[in-house]
C-alpha cells in the first residue's frame, strides 16, 4: 500500500507518505512525545483480555499491539516489526497495564507475510517460551458490513499526532465493520476491513498498530482483525474509518507458518 503504516506506538515516526501511525525499526527506536499509545474516544478496558499483547523493545517500552493465538505465537501488523530482529523484541501478555502484570516472553522468530507492501500487513512472532495466558481463536470470517466489533489498544487518545501522552491502562472501543467504500488509501477488499469511527470522532490512533479487532461469537471473543493504518487522507486519528488487516483472510498462511516454524 501507498500508505504504509498505522498505529505504531511510542517511537519516532519515519513513514514517508504515510497518513501513518507507524514507525520503522520500532524495537530499536527511542521513545518520543509524538507517538504515544491510546484509542481515541474509547474508555478503560472493562475486562482483562488474556490474549492482548504489548510488543516492547528490550527496554520494556510499548510500541505496538498484538494478539496471542497460540501459547507461543502472536499475530501483529507487519509494519510493526519491519526491519527488526527477534532479539530486539519482547512481549507482555494478558494485562491491562503494559508496564506490569501478565506474563513476559522473548521473541524467537519474526515472520512477516512475504507479500507485505502496505497491504498483507500481517506478521507472526514465535515466542521463545510458551505463556499460560489463554489465546484467542480466529473467527471463521470477519462478518458482513454492520458486524459489531471491539478494538483494544494502548494508542493515543487524542486525534492530533503528538497532542497527548500515553495511557498505561488498556483502552477499548465498540465499533463495527463498515462498507469498503468508506476507506481510501489503497484499500484491499480481499484482505482488509474498513472499521467505523463512531460519531466521526472515535477510533484507532498512534500506538494501536497490530492490536486486535474482535467480535463476540457464542459469548466468546474471536479475532477478526489487526490494526493497520488510517483509512483517510489526514494524519489526524478517528476523523475517518480505520483500515484493519482481515486476519481471517490469512488463516491458511497462519496455519502453514505455524506448522513450519514450530521447531
Supply the key terms.
263 residues, mainly beta, Thrombin, subunit H, eight-stranded mixed β-sheet, 14 strands, disordered N terminus, disulfide bond, hydrolase, signal, Peptidase_S1_PA_chymotrypsin, serine protease
Could you please describe the fold and organization of this structure?
The chain has 263 residues and is mainly β. It has a domain at 138-249: Trypsin-like serine proteases (Thrombin, subunit H, Beta Barrel), CATH 2.40.10.10. The protein is 6% helix and 31% strand. The chain is built from two helices and 14 strands; from the N terminus they run ββββαββββββββββα. It has helices at 78-81, 251-261; strands at residues 43-44, 52-57, 62-70, 73-76, 89-93, 103-112, 123-127, 137-138, 148-153, 171-176, 192-195, 212-217, 220-230, 242-246. Strands 1, 8, 9, 10, 11, 12, 13 and 14 form an eight-stranded mixed beta sheet that branches. A hairpin with a 2-residue loop joins strand 12 (212-217) and strand 13. The chain starts with 42 loop residues before the first strand and ends with a helix. This is Trypsin. One of its GO terms (biological process) is proteolysis. Keywords: Disulfide bond, Hydrolase, Protease, Serine protease, Signal. InterPro entries: Peptidase_S1, Peptidase_S1_PA, Peptidase_S1_PA_chymotrypsin, Peptidase_S1A, Trypsin_dom, TRYPSIN_HIS. One of its GO terms (molecular function) is serine-type endopeptidase activity.
Amino acid at each position: 500500500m501507498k500508505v504504509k503504516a498505522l498505529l505504531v506506538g511510542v517511537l519516532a515516526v519515519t513513514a514517508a507518505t504515510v497518513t501513518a501511525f507507524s514507525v520503522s525499526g520500532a524495537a530499536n527506536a527511542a521513545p518520543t512525545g509524538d507517538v504515544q499509545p491510546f484509542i481515541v474516544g474509547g474508555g478503560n478496558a472493562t475486562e482483562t483480555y488474556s490474549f492482548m499483547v504489548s510488543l516492547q523493545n528490550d527496554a520494556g517500552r510499548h510500541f505496538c499491539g498484538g494478539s496471542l493465538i497460540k501459547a507461543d505465537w502472536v499475530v501483529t501488523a507487519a509494519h510493526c516489526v519491519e526491519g527488526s530482529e527477534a532479539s530486539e523484541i519482547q512481549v507482555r501478555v494478558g494485562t491491562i497495564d503494559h508496564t506490569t502484570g501478565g506474563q513476559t516472553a522473548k521473541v524467537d522468530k519474526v515472520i512477516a507475510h512475504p507479500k507485505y507492501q502496505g497491504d498483507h500487513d500481517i506478521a507472526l512472532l514465535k515466542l521463545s517460551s510458551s505463556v499460560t495466558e489463554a489465546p484467542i481463536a480466529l473467527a471463521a470470517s470477519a462478518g458482513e458490513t454492520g458486524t459489531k466489533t471491539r478494538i483494544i489498544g494502548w494508542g493515543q487518545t487524542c486525534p492530533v499526532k503528538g497532542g497527548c501522552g500515553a495511557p498505561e491502562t488498556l483502552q477499548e472501543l465498540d465499533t463495527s465493520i463498515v462498507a469498503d467504500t468508506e476507506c481510501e488509501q489503497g484499500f484491499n477488499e480481499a484482505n482488509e476491513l474498513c472499521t467505523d469511527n463512531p460519531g466521526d470522532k472515535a477510533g484507532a490512533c498512534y500506538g494501536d498498530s497490530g492490536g486486535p479487532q474482535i467480535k463476540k461469537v457464542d459469548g466468546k471473543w474471536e479475532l477478526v482483525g489487526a490494526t493497520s493504518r488510517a483509512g483517510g487522507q489526514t494524519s489526524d486519528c478517528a476523523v475517518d474509518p480505520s483500515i484493519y488487516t482481515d486476519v481471517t483472510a490469512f488463516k491458511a498462511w497462519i496455519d502453514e507458518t505455524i506448522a513450519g516454524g514450530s521447531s
